[in-house]
Amino acid sequence: MHRYRSHTCGALRATDIGGEVRLSGWCHRIRDHGGVLFIDLRDHYGLTQVVADPDSPAFKVAETLRSEWVVRIDGKVRRRPGGTENPELPTGEIEVYISEIEVLGRAGELPMPVFGEQDYPEDIRLKYRFLDLRREHLHRNIMKRGEIIDSLRRRMKAQGFFEFQTPILTASSPEGARDYLVPSRLHPGKFYALPQAPQQFKQLIMISGFDRYFQIAPCFRDEDARADRSPGEFYQLDLEMSFVTQEDVFDAVEPVIRGVFEEFSAGKDVTAKFPRIAYADALAKYGTDKPDLRNPIVIQDVSEIFRGSGFKIFARILESSAKAAVWTIPAPKGGSRAFCDRMNSWAQGEGQPGLGYIFFATDAGSVVGRGPVANNLGAERTERLRAQLGLNDGDAVFFAAGEPAAFVKFAGLARTKIGEDLGLIDKDRFELCWIVDFPMYEWNEEEKKIDFSHNPFSMPNMPAEEFLALDGADRDKALALRAIQYDIVCNGVELSSGAIRNHRPDVMKKAFAIAGYDESVLEQKFGGMLHALSLGAPPHGGIAPGIDRIVMLLCGEENLREVVLFPMNQRAEDLMMGAPSEATPKQLRELHIRVVKPGPA
Predict the structure, then answer these.
(1) CB 6 within 8 A of CB 75
(2) To which H or E segment does residue 219 belong?
(3) How far is CA 319 from CA 299, 315, 357, in A?
(4) How far is CA 529 from the centre of its chain?
């Protein structure tokens, strides 16, 4: 028999009754029922109930066992007594009567329990992550993560992609976040950078003549943590394709993402065909470029109803600026003063002066609007509003007014808040979509200049020769330009960004010139890529869905730390390993570095 086990703790069934077996694992739970000891023995594969009574030669050792001790047991498989079966366990029909116990590893007093899945402070869970990972829920999430990555890899290869590995030690790149720098011992005063993404390398792979690249890529960014973004490092499904249009990228990527969501959705519905929503439409309808399409609420512009109306606050706002508008956020079944007052209080907590509303009720057989806005707007305009929005008795509507650029984010938050509080969001769906037609540029009011809106290396969505002929000083034309950029969004979470790349040096120089960058700056910062593009680059494009976010959604979690093996805390600290830590004087000397700690200004 094997030194430690003949079976795993999830393997035994009724067909094994009568057999002599050896199991090894952790003492998950120990129960004393009238002098008979029942131990749930746990390993990676499952649980088996093992039993010792005073007649067992192993009883004295069994009495000394404590939670999370690691033991080997020998014994005989027998059927559980009638009425004690556990149908929730694969091993629930049997138990093992112990003949011998060997203690393989004692456990001291536990800082947190493994049995029971109790909620514990995050700092304890992260410091003792190895204990937390023994718990069933987190253990299952990590295993599902591996299965999801396997599925992604398999589907990518089926689409004709080949897996490459790109460097981890590289040069600082213009990805937009802070780099993690690595000092060079051999080159004093110089530094490597950990890649924020393999962006330049994957484009260079296309320039090198390869056709379809992918990688489960580690990325490193010195950013603050959020629930949907890990500090320090994260993984993405990085891919790039040559000789492709936006449509080709969509045709290759959508089946991979949809297939993975269908495979791991646990019965939830998955969007059959990802709708395409223009960036401007997403803002106008949902108040965000990351819309949760499970929420049925659609924002509408009702400016004409309020223009010149008796509700002077909005009427004056509309007169003050040609860009001003009044948007509505409908609230089906939210038509009570109590709910409207709660939303008003919430808005004030978000830094707004308040949140105007109308709620609708039946009066003398007719549905009429109630509240200060309706009283001042008048019955006729209120009825036009109700008809346009399709609202009825028991419904309400809320308002945002001003220049949309200033209130669009708040309108999106209000839409989400209303949908959640009124239970309108269908939690049994994964609603995926493409966001397309991102603006190429935006106006920087502070510096009074044109800036890139998103990725500066994307192709403009117009023929190259037309773009080259543009008058760069024509601000309106520049701001009207769209780039061939796209995002995948699922349930309000951005999974990835991608683009058809700017593969022509002349187009790239023009794009940067419109944003006010001299050609010398382009050469200085991106000379290597520019030179590569000048030596024969194919049209190419790609995308990089976030692995951690995909797994988070498919595991039903709201925090990435529930699907990452060894995450950092909010302050980018590894509490378990004690990172970051101070370097020794010898290490600093070898790296030619002197540490200057921050002091008083």
Answers:
(1) no
(2) strand 212-221
(3) 22, 6, 21
(4) 30
